[in-house]
Amino acid sequence: MTKSSSTSHWDKLVERYFEALTTEAEERRLRRFLCSPEGADPRYDDVRAVMGFLAVGRQTLRRPARVRPARRVRHWAAAAALLLLAAGGAGWWIADRQRNVCVAYVDGHRVTDTETVMRQAVEALDAVDRQLGDPTVEQQLNDMFHTLDADTPADAQS
Known about the structure:
Blueprint lengths: L2 H16 L5 H12 L9 H18 L6 H31 L4 E3 L2 E3 L2 H15 L8 H15 L2 H4 L1
Antiparallel strand pairs: 1-2
Helix pairs in contact: 1-2
């Protein structure tokens, strides 16, 4: 077979390939030809690209999808972050409970019994609570300022 007749044979086979008329055996021969030095001609670039694309597509359809190691690392990192967040929250909650202890000092002694401390707090608030007839802070301040106004001489006011 001469080179030109060989080339025309492959050109016809390429046309049949693009028209989807080739058999599996013809496609295998065409693939082998395209991988040979004679098939490295730039005019066969299109068919090489299409065949390469289809070959990759077939491979991805045949093999099952597998989890990439990077994806596993992200899953473990997310799990570790959640665990760390939960541990931090639990630690904060424990520390907060230990910090919120009722403490009162009665006659110089530390008292931590909750009921005793609450009773002492209520008694302290009752001691400073204003009774119904007692003057308010505003009334007491007004009395003080009126007293000051009355004590100043008339010539100092003008």
